[in-house]
Automatic annotation (TrEMBL), chain A:
GO cellular component terms, A-Z: plasma membrane
GO terms under biological process: transmembrane transport
Protein name: Peptide/nickel transport system permease protein
UniProt keyword annotations, A-Z: Cell membrane, Membrane, Transmembrane, Transmembrane helix, Transport
Automatic annotation (TrEMBL), chain B:
Taxonomic source organism: Paenibacillus typhae
Family: Belongs to the binding-protein-dependent transport system permease family.
ABC transmembrane type-1 domain ranges (all copies): 89-278
SUPFAM superfamilies: MetI-like
Taxonomic superkingdom: Bacteria
Topology in the lipid bilayer: Multi-pass membrane protein
Keywords: Cell membrane, Membrane, Transmembrane, Transmembrane helix, Transport
Name this polypeptide is given: Peptide/nickel transport system permease protein
Primary residence: membrane
GO cellular component: plasma membrane
Subcellular location as annotated: Cell membrane
Bilayer-spanning residue ranges: 29-49, 93-117, 124-147, 153-171, 210-236, 256-278
Biological processes annotated in GO: transmembrane transport
Length: 329, 288
């Protein structure tokens, strides 16, 4: 849906020293504050009473009033907001789970490692496959391989990620029995093995965008003056490709992944559901079916804040690594 | 049309080339339109084409493989898969189009306002979009759809809330770049008011690009509708929907794999059709 756009570089070009960094930090902080406010208002702007949702349509008014009190919904809005922000800043929490009574932060911390591992694996797989396909496409420009690789995005655009997962299970788990059908294995190797197929599924949704921009990037480098010079100096094509072209294309790929981190996280939540992985995604869906509002809020908040922080880090890293911006740094 | 399109790249060429000819000369647009039209025609005329009812169960004929009677076989409740597939196209495509109307309009409007006026207006709108973008798309869609109650109403509310951002971002960028160009500056020197410039001059020039984005965005929206259906917080059974069909078929992937596979291909087919139309329109408007 939301197309990967460029990071909003706030006219940092002509400013000197680290002022762009200050500006980026301030912007990220403001967005995080907005995210907190949005999470707070999320259950208040959408129609429906949270208490009614927790207790069911046919609950007594007394029970609803009691639930309002437990959730603090009987207080004036500004007081609720202060309580919410206070709890967030003192303990990084959005309240205790209505079902288990455990704090949301603890619940999320329990589930986060699997999800993070899955996202990390998906990133690695996506980069490796995208680099491979983009290299093939860029070095065979306008030949059959290039055309085939360029059709790929149009086909995958309409592929629901969960459906891709189901197809992989059908083919690779049920038919060929290469991978387990679902769940997470024991120990490190078992875990990596059982997370491979889900990671490939998540990566699959990212590869088309990555290939498209990488291919364009590589073509630009391949046609640039310095590569022409290297060719003229009789440097072998293989060396040029691996040493110069790939290196120059790596940074944009990384940045694009940073921009897309939001889609990666969202896709992972859905894919976890397909493969029965007990991560943040399954916590989200159990909380949804239990109507466990504090936990849902916590997941939304933690995901959004990580997206903001990762985008910020990628922006800083890109500025740091890009030799062209050295003067302005 | 009274509106003057001053932006040179978008000017149509001489009266010799008709619109139809230009469409016929853009193969991707033609192919995409035909693919989409076929689907629409099937969806409209399915009650006359199929002898089966999409929701009526026939437990004596469950999980049948594809045959002459049932082109794509039957599902676990003995319902004809092909019939359900096309009825699901009715549901999903109608929601897809309806749910896109309001976000398309608000997105374009906010984007133009942000891009044209700049300064604090732009800062506020950009801050709102940045905040929304921080939430993983599926996370916010799942939470809002759930909170506003599963079903079609939830889907509409969700996309009114989050769907406008793509358009706002694209249109904002375009408007900001147009603002720097002479024709807008001269319109301002002539004393035209802001709203007038936005509606009469900016809008016709940002619309083509916005429509191209709309095509890809509709694919994304369709996938989101289907995903919500799959997760059980979208269209409620027994109304046929590609997402719930995939979910229902998932229990039978070792015996009747096509139950889950086929509805997915329908989504992919629609996606290819719409992105071809989008590519074609982009070509059409780029070509002089």
């Amino acid at each position: 849906m939301m197309m990967p756009g460029k990071l909003q570089g706030s006219a940092a070009g002509n400013r000197t020293s680290y002022s762009w960094l200050t500006a980026a930090l301030i912007r990220a902080a403001v967005v995080i504050l907005c995210v907190m406010t949005a999470v707070f208002f999320l259950i208040r702007i959408v129609p429906g009473d949270p208490a009614k949702m927790i207790l069911g349509e046919y609950s007594t008014p007394e029970a609803i009033a009691a639930m309002h009190h437990t959730l603090g919904l009987d207080l004036p809005l500004w007081e609720q907001f202060i309580r919410f922000v206070k709890l967030l800043f003192t303990s990084g929490d959005t309240g205790n789970s209505i079902v288990s009574g455990t704090s949301t932060r603890v619940l999320i911390a329990e589930r986060a490692p699997v999800t993070m591992l899955l996202i990390g694996m998906a990133c690695v797989i996506a980069i490796v496959i995208a680099l491979l396909l983009a290299t093939v496409a860029a070095t065979n420009k306008d030949k059959l391989a290039d055309h085939l690789i360029r059709i790929f995005p149009a086909i995958t655009l309409g592929m629901p990620i969960f459906w891709v997962g189901i197809l992989f299970i059908m083919l690779l788990s049920v038919r060929l029995r290469w991978f387990p059908v679902g769940g997470v294995g024991e120990g490190w190797s078992g875990m990596l093995y059982s997370l491979t197929l889900p990671a490939v599924t998540v990566a699959f949704s990212q590869i088309p965008t990555l290939v498209r921009s990488l291919r364009a990037q590589m073509l630009e480098v391949l046609e640039s003056d310095f590569v022409v010079t290297l060719r003229a100096a009789r440097i072998p094509g293989r060396v040029i490709l691996f040493k110069h072209v790939l290196r120059n294309s790596a940074l944009p790929t990384l940045m694009l992944l940073g921009v897309n981190i939001s889609y990666l996280i969202g896709g992972t939540l859905v894919v976890e559901q397909v493969f029965g992985i007990k991560g943040i995604g399954s916590l989200l869906f159990t909380s949804i079916s239990n109507r466990d509002f504090p936990v849902i809020q916590g997941i939304a908040l933690y995901c959004a804040v990580s997206v903001v922080i990762i985008s910020l880090l990628v922006e800083i890293l890109a500025k740091w690594l890009d030799p062209r911006t050295k003067g302005t740094r | 049309m009274k509106t003057t399109t001053i932006y040179p790249e978008l000017q149509t060429d001489g009266p010799k080339t008709t619109l139809l000819r230009r469409i016929l000369n853009t193969p991707s647009l033609l192919a995409g339109s035909i693919m989409f039209a076929v689907l629409i025609l099937l969806a409209v005329f399915i009650p006359y084409l199929s002898p089966y009812d999409p929701t009526e169960q026939n437990l004596s004929a469950f999980l049948q493989p594809p045959s002459a009677e049932h082109w794509l076989g039957t599902d676990q409740l003995g319902r004809d898969l092909f019939t359900r597939l096309i009825y699901a196209a009715r549901t999903d495509l109608t929601i897809m189009v309806l749910a896109e109307i309001i976000p398309f309009c608000t997105g374009i409007f906010l984007g133009m306002v942000a891009g044209y006026y700049g300064k604090w207006v732009d800062n506020v709108i950009t801050l709102i979009t940045d905040t929304f973008i921080a939430f993983p798309f599926y996370l916010i869609v799942i939470i809002v759809a759930f909170a506003s109650g599963a079903g079609q109403r939830g889907i509409y509310i969700t996309f009114i809330l989050v769907g406008w951002i793509v358009f706002a971002r694209v249109v904002r960028g375009l408007s900001a770049s147009f603002r720097e160009q002479e024709w807008i500056a001269s319109a301002r020197t002539l004393g035209l008011s802001g709203p007038r410039i936005i509606l009469r001059h900016l809008l016709p020039n940002v619309l083509p690009q916005a429509v191209v984005v709309l095509m890809t965005d509709m694919v994304g929206l369709l996938v989101a509708i289907v995903t919500l259906g799959y997760l059980g917080i979208g269209i409620a059974p027994p109304t046929p929907d590609w997402g719930t069909m995939i979910a229902d078929g998932q229990s039978f992937i070792s015996t009747a794999w096509w139950l889950s596979a086929v509805p997915g291909f329908a989504v992919v087919y629609t996606g290819i059709a719409l992105s071809l139309v989008g590519d074609g329109l982009a070509d059409l408007w780029r070509k002089k």
